[in-house]
Amino acid sequence: MADHTHFDWPFFDAHHRVLARELDGWAAKNIHAGHEVDVDAACRKLVRQLGEAGWLKYAIGGKEYGASSDAIDTRAICIVRETLARHSGLADFAFAMQGLGSGAITLFGTPAQKSQYLTRVREGSLIAAFALSEPDAGSDVAALRCEARREGDAFVLNGEKTWISNGGIADFYVVFARTGEEPGARGITAFIVEPGARGFAIAERIDVMAPHPLARITFTDCRIPASQLLGEPAQGFKVAMATLDVFRTSVAAAALGFARCALHEALRRATSRKMFGQTLADFQLTQAKLASMATSIDAAALLTYRAAWLRDQGQRVTVEAAMAKLTATETAQHDFEINGGGADASNRERGGKYFAEPARSREINFHVNGRQAPAAFRDEIRERELQAFAAPVFHKIVENLQIARVENYPGGIAIAKTHEYFRAIGMRWGSSRLRFRNGRFSHVNLRVPGMRR
Ligand SMILES: Cc1cc2nc3c(=O)[nH]c(=O)nc-3n(C[C@H](O)[C@H](O)[C@H](O)COP(=O)(O)OP(=O)(O)OC[C@H]3O[C@@H](n4cnc5c(N)ncnc54)[C@H](O)[C@@H]3O)c2cc1C
Asked: Of ligand 1's atoms, which has the minimum distance to the CA of residue 97?
């Protein structure tokens, strides 16, 4: 049984602690991470299992559809994702996509749309997908080009979406298309599209390091009834951002689960691997490394559950969620590197998901952190994050490396942490490029053998 002591922190209510304990017990018995030959079948099975066991009630909102609460319980979603990610990356994916794919319906759907979709999403009998990204519109959502033209009682969609998780197995897709009321973000509308609609096609399945259903989809004169419009016309950007805001914090929680899994593996390996007449864990350098992992994990957990708790208090958490996601995903990525050649392959695979996805949006997280903070609060936020993020490790590093000033925060911390890691293992692993100019570090390129990027 995993260590649950962090659930004693004051962020949680009693039912959160029960959820964490019961889900962990269930996952240990029912979820087995492995190399899936048929990832579609594995994913469908996981959605069904999660639905039948009742865990998908946390992925939606609205008690009348069987949800655990009317408003989405962010802390519960985070607990579920952290726990599932520790057991299986694909189980976490299956849960997360049921939530992300149906989130816009929970938040903006009509009563008819909610009863048509949410109950079955919760049961695990309908698989959901969220189709926003396009080949030329990723971070820059307002650049999307897929269009929807009104024709009587219908909308006609033309265009494409890519990197769509659950693409190929989903029973419905929440699709964002340009309806053209105004240019940019103000001319986008959300729709619910079912794959049976004429003109809908799976154009390509996409392979990734951590296999899961992923596809490019196309719409060619794809006609859908106007009743499938989701939210207000021209409000699609708002619908997309509100949905992503709910789930952004939970990405951090999943990364936290991966990082905990990595620490568990590292401890198991270090205490059992015999070398030089003792075990790997007997070396002080190893102990320092494990202590650093544990510190980073707690820092990431504090940021994650701070964001989740604030959101459950009704506050806007764009900055806090971005900080949590950035810290937790970097911790997960870093911690998996530590496991070395003896690590369980399936666990590496789980971590691989996080080499792929958040890495793509790392800079945008820095950007969100910087841009969203009103100037007067930036220093305070920076200080708060420093304290929660890595203060103990950071100060030790600054001392060791005798760096007078590390101003290029947060890149400076990432670089310093990387450097500490390299020093701790006493070797150069892959290649690292540090630029030090005018009293500050500015850039690092890190490549670990076997990592395809
Ligand atoms: C495994 C996987 C699953 C996915 N699932 C889905 C899904 O289900 N639905 C969906 O709609 N999309 C999905 N996506 C797409 C994902 O949302 C996009 O990859 C993401 O939005 C980034 O877009 P992009 O890949 O086009 O990168 P780009 O937008 O081209 O960004 C490239 C780089 O530029 C950086 N960058 C962006 N803005 C700035 C800035 N202002 N300053 C400096 N740097 C910046 C980014 O951080 C990134 O590193 C998925 C992607 C992956 C990898």
From this structure: 8
pTM: 0.79
Provide the Cα torsion 45, 50, 51, 54; round to 10°.
160
**Ligand 1 neighbourhood includes 96 CB (under 6 angstroms):** no
**Tokens matching residue 160:** 């494409």
Residue 452 has pLDDT above 70, yes or no: no
Quote the ligand 1 centre to 361 CA distance (angstroms): 5
Over residues 348-391, the pLDDT tens digits come to 444 444 433 433 344 455 545 444 444 434 444 444 443 443 34
Name the domain count of the chain. 4
Q: Among 93-102, 171-180, 417-426, 442-451, which is the least confidently predicted range?
A: 442-451
Of all protein residues, the one whose alpha carbon is nearest to atom 27 of ligand 1 is 138
Q: Tell me which residue range forms the domain holding 439.
A: 382-444
Distances (CA, A) of 317 to 100, 101, 312: 17, 21, 10
* CATH code at position 107: 1.10.540.10
Domain end: 348, 369, 390, which one?
369
Q: Report which protein residue has its CA nearest ligand 1's atom 6.
A: 164
CATH number of residue 149's parent domain: 2.40.110.10
